[in-house]
């Protein structure tokens, strides 16, 4: 009899994480939150520390034929800072681990680190360690970020309540559309190396893909306005998929409105040019690294006039389900069709 073999694709990335978590035991009362949020939360004196790690692999997360190494370095840091922001914490330190094949020179590693150091400067964090090894399969970068907050400031995925308002920062879909443009220009170049890529027209969307920004500005503004989100996470896999995580963790439902979804004009026009539905890009495009959060209605007036926070819907009872109200007024069931690793 052959042993049972289950393909990872049968349970998916999140199914696999849940499966692993079943056998993981928490031993310390200082571990306030383990697996299941954007970062772990650890008690540390009168504050808490948050700890998060994200891995970037050549061929999966970036393609060096169009992503400059300095941008890859910046992005590796920014995506981790984004997870610290998603806990409503302030980042303080990072560690950086790299695996390099013999294709990389000292100058190439310097280029990567110019981006890492620029991001450390930009987000005000110290690079305090890491690891360096050989790789047999291209460049691998793993960053761990550590942040701080007061215990009561931490925003978990699990705190959304019925009637809370659902907020999204910035605009969505740009990183996916930018990726499609970069891939298109790569194909054109590969079929005819004399062709120069035409990228000037697409600078906003390609920048969204190559050099994303973590929304620490919003975290500082929320503190000034004395607003603590009832729940929060960052948008790395796509808005719809992230809403499903908030619903599952908070045991709630959501209703969002198509006409409230934020999309940039260049993202919209480029999506149409590529034959993509702009709303699908907003709902399912990954890597925008904007913040998705919920607020109590009492805090609405404090944020109402903010130019970069959009109110896209409200939290409902779990049994009311997850719905998108289209421009024509019909309620369609929301589907989580974000980025899939498996
Ligand atoms: N292999 C693993 N072992 C233990 N915990 C894991 C593992 N992979 C992920 N996790 C944990 O599972 C939770 C969800 O991880 P996930 O990567 O989806 O979140 P995220 O970091 O917000 O997303 P992204 O990687 O897109 O930024 C986190 O708490 C994370 O630390
Ligand atoms: C070359 C190349 N191919 C595909 C993509 C798209 N992509 C990769 S990972 C991811 C989601 C977040 O991943 P994670 O959850 O691991 O942080 C997305 C949308 C890309 N950026 N570059
Ligand atoms: Mg996250």
Automatic annotation (TrEMBL):
<feature type="binding site">
    <location>
        <position position="54"/>
    </location>
    <ligand>
        <name>Mg(2+) 1</name>
    </ligand>
</feature>
<comment type="pathway">
    <text>Cofactor biosynthesis; thiamine diphosphate biosynthesis; thiamine diphosphate from thiamine phosphate: step 1/1.</text>
</comment>
<feature type="binding site">
    <location>
        <position position="113"/>
    </location>
    <ligand>
        <name>ATP</name>
    </ligand>
</feature>
<keyword id="KW-0547">Nucleotide-binding</keyword>
<keyword id="KW-0418">Kinase</keyword>
<dbReference type="InterPro" id="IPR006283">
    <property type="entry name" value="ThiL-like"/>
</dbReference>
<keyword id="KW-0808">Transferase</keyword>
<feature type="domain" description="PurM-like C-terminal">
    <location>
        <begin position="162"/>
        <end position="322"/>
    </location>
</feature>
<feature type="binding site">
    <location>
        <position position="287"/>
    </location>
    <ligand>
        <name>substrate</name>
    </ligand>
</feature>
<feature type="binding site">
    <location>
        <position position="53"/>
    </location>
    <ligand>
        <name>Mg(2+) 1</name>
    </ligand>
</feature>
<feature type="binding site">
    <location>
        <position position="52"/>
    </location>
    <ligand>
        <name>Mg(2+) 4</name>
    </ligand>
</feature>
<dbReference type="Pfam" id="PF02769">
    <property type="entry name" value="AIRS_C"/>
</dbReference>
<keyword id="KW-0784">Thiamine biosynthesis</keyword>
<dbReference type="InterPro" id="IPR016188">
    <property type="entry name" value="PurM-like_N"/>
</dbReference>
<feature type="binding site">
    <location>
        <position position="83"/>
    </location>
    <ligand>
        <name>Mg(2+) 3</name>
    </ligand>
</feature>
<dbReference type="GO" id="GO:0009030">
    <property type="term" value="F:thiamine-phosphate kinase activity"/>
</dbReference>
<keyword id="KW-0479">Metal-binding</keyword>
<feature type="binding site">
    <location>
        <position position="83"/>
    </location>
    <ligand>
        <name>Mg(2+) 2</name>
    </ligand>
</feature>
<feature type="domain" description="PurM-like N-terminal">
    <location>
        <begin position="36"/>
        <end position="148"/>
    </location>
</feature>
<keyword id="KW-0067">ATP-binding</keyword>
<protein>
    <recommendedName>
        <fullName>Thiamine-monophosphate kinase</fullName>
        <ecNumber>2.7.4.16</ecNumber>
    </recommendedName>
</protein>
<dbReference type="InterPro" id="IPR036676">
    <property type="entry name" value="PurM-like_C_sf"/>
</dbReference>
<feature type="binding site">
    <location>
        <position position="234"/>
    </location>
    <ligand>
        <name>Mg(2+) 3</name>
    </ligand>
</feature>
<feature type="binding site">
    <location>
        <position position="339"/>
    </location>
    <ligand>
        <name>substrate</name>
    </ligand>
</feature>
<feature type="binding site">
    <location>
        <position position="236"/>
    </location>
    <ligand>
        <name>ATP</name>
    </ligand>
</feature>
<feature type="binding site">
    <location>
        <position position="83"/>
    </location>
    <ligand>
        <name>Mg(2+) 4</name>
    </ligand>
</feature>
<feature type="binding site">
    <location>
        <position position="61"/>
    </location>
    <ligand>
        <name>substrate</name>
    </ligand>
</feature>
<feature type="binding site">
    <location>
        <position position="38"/>
    </location>
    <ligand>
        <name>Mg(2+) 3</name>
    </ligand>
</feature>
<feature type="binding site">
    <location>
        <position position="237"/>
    </location>
    <ligand>
        <name>Mg(2+) 5</name>
    </ligand>
</feature>
<feature type="binding site">
    <location>
        <position position="131"/>
    </location>
    <ligand>
        <name>Mg(2+) 1</name>
    </ligand>
</feature>
<feature type="binding site">
    <location>
        <position position="54"/>
    </location>
    <ligand>
        <name>Mg(2+) 2</name>
    </ligand>
</feature>
<dbReference type="InterPro" id="IPR010918">
    <property type="entry name" value="PurM-like_C_dom"/>
</dbReference>
<keyword id="KW-0460">Magnesium</keyword>
<comment type="similarity">
    <text>Belongs to the thiamine-monophosphate kinase family.</text>
</comment>
<dbReference type="Pfam" id="PF00586">
    <property type="entry name" value="AIRS"/>
</dbReference>
<feature type="binding site">
    <location>
        <begin position="130"/>
        <end position="131"/>
    </location>
    <ligand>
        <name>ATP</name>
    </ligand>
</feature>
<feature type="binding site">
    <location>
        <position position="157"/>
    </location>
    <ligand>
        <name>ATP</name>
    </ligand>
</feature>
<comment type="function">
    <text>Catalyzes the ATP-dependent phosphorylation of thiamine-monophosphate (TMP) to form thiamine-pyrophosphate (TPP), the active form of vitamin B1.</text>
</comment>
<feature type="binding site">
    <location>
        <position position="38"/>
    </location>
    <ligand>
        <name>Mg(2+) 4</name>
    </ligand>
</feature>
<dbReference type="InterPro" id="IPR036921">
    <property type="entry name" value="PurM-like_N_sf"/>
</dbReference>
């Amino acid at each position: 009899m052959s042993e049972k073999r289950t393909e990872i694709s049968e349970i998916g990335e999140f199914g696999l994480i849940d499966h692993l978590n079943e056998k993981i035991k928490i031993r310390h009362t200082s571990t306030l939150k383990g697996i299941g949020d954007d970062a772990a939360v650890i008690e540390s004196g009168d504050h808490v520390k948050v700890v998060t790690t994200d891995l970037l692999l050549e061929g999966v997360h970036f393609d060096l034929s169009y992503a400059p190494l300095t941008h890859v370095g910046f992005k590796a840091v920014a995506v981790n800072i984004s997870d610290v922001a998603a806990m409503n914490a302030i980042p303080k330190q990072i560690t950086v681990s790299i695996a390099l094949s013999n294709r990389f020179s000292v100058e190439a590693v310097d280029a990567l680190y110019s981006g890492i150091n620029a991001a450390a400067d930009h987000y005000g964090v110290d690079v305090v360690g890491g690891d360096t090894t050989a790789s047999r399969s291209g460049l691998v970068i793993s960053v761990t970020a550590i942040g701080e907050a007061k215990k009561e400031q931490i925003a978990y995925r699990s705190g959304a309540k019925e009637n809370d308002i659902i907020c999204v920062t910035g605009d969505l879909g740009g990183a996916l559309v930018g990726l499609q443009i970069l891939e298109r220009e790569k194909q054109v170049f590969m079929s005819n190396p004399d062709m120069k890529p035409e990228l000037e027209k697409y600078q906003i969307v390609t920048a969204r893909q190559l050099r994303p920004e973590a929304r620490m500005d919003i975290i500082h503004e929320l503190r000034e306005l004395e607003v603590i989100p009832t729940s929060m996470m960052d948008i790395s896999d796509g808005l719809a998929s992230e809403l499903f995580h908030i619903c599952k963790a908070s045991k709630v439902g959501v209703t969002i409105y198509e006409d409230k979804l934020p999309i940039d004009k260049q993202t919209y026009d480029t999506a149409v040019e590529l034959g993509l539905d702009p709303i699908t890009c907003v709902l399912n495009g990954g890597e925008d690294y904007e913040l998705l959060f919920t607020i109590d209605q009492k805090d609405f007036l404090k944020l109402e006039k903010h130019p970069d926070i959009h109110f896209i819907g409200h939290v409902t009872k779990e049994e009311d389900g997850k719905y998108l109200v289209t421009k024509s007024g019909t309620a369609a069931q929301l589907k989580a069709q974000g980025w899939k690793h498996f």
